[in-house]
Each structure stands twice: as C-alpha cells, then as structure tokens.
Design a protein that fits this description.
Elements (H helix, E strand, L loop, with lengths): L1 H10 L6 E10 L2 E6 L6 E5 L2 E2 L8 H12 L3 E9 L5 E7 L2 E2 H7 L4 E2 L10 H10 L12 H8 L6 H4 L5
Parallel strand pairs: 3-6
Antiparallel strand pairs: 1-2, 1-5, 2-3, 4-8, 5-6, 6-7
Length: about 170
C-alpha cells in the first residue's frame, strides 16, 4: 500500500522523479533505489549534503545510520541533475522525512557548502553541532571536502564504484 501511494505521488511529478525501494547504501550520501515502475536500481547521491568519506573517521557510522533508516524501504527521489561521477543527484524523502535534513540534523553529514553559501541544511547543521551529535562529538571533525583535499577520495574503492546485486 505504501509503495502504491509513493508511486501515485510521483505519477504527476517531473520526469526525473520516481518512487522506489532502497536496495543498497554505498555511504552516508549515496544509495541505490530500484524504481517501483521496474528496472535496475539507480545510483542516487543525496543532494545538499556531504557525508564523511567511507574511509574517513565517522564514514562507516554515517553509512550505517542511513542504511538502518532506509534499506529495503520505499522512498521518493526528486532529481534534475547528475554529478561528476554520473550519479543522479536528488532530494530523497521517506514519507514526510527529508533524508538530507535528517542526515545533517542527526550529525551524520554536513550541509553542502558552495562558494560561501552555507547550504540548504545550515540550520540543521548548526543545531547538530551545538548539541554535539554524531560527527560533531569530535573536537574538530574534518569535512569531507577537506579530507579529499588532503587524502584523495575513497571513490576508487570497488565497493563504491560497483553496482550492487540487488
């Protein structure tokens, strides 16, 4: 019934929008969603957040938190673009919950900053930081952007590049 409601909600949506079930969570900001209309799972990066790299401190915890929340469950993806790694960029909701906001507010990701703009989830990040939730429990957490500058990306690891079997 829930999947049917999600599908109905997306039928009047834009072409890049779809409902589906999460089949795999790669890391704290990337997952795979099998469309309810059928077909292979699509790789989706949650737009507006930057989670720790999987090989970075708190990266495994971010992935685990997202997986515990969505794996095997229905979501709605709203997308109009792809990133440099050919992943669909999308806002993902689970019922009334914006997963990007949830990841940032629970301290599992940063609000994605761009050219001085603090990002759409800046308020959620400020609250998580003040409350020392998740990655903010550390004295000086390193942002994924800074981690990639210093150490490179974990993207070359097979678990991040390959499509899951689901």
């Amino acid at each position: 019934m829930r999947a049917g409601l999600l599908l109905a909600a997306c039928m009047s949506a834009k072409a890049g929008d779809f409902a589906g079930v999460v089949t795999h969570v790669t890391d704290g900001d990337t997952l795979w969603v099998r469309p309810a209309s059928g077909g292979a799972p699509r790789q989706v990066r949650i737009e507006g957040i930057d989670a720790p790299e999987i090989c970075q401190a708190f990266g495994a915890q971010a992935r685990q938190a997202l997986a515990a929340r969505v794996l095997g469950r229905p979501v709605v993806v709203r997308s109009q673009a792809s990133d440099n790694y050919q992943r669909m960029l999308g806002h993902i909701s689970q019922g009334e919950v914006d997963l990007g906001a949830w990841m940032v507010s629970s301290g599992h990701a940063w609000s994605y900053r761009f050219r001085g703009d603090p990002g759409r989830y800046a308020a959620e990040q400020a609250r998580a930081r003040t409350s020392r939730l998740g990655l903010w429990h550390a004295d000086a957490p390193v942002s994924p952007r800074e981690f990639r500058k210093r150490h490179g990306s974990c993207v070359t690891r097979p678990e991040r590049d390959s499509q899951p079997d689901g």
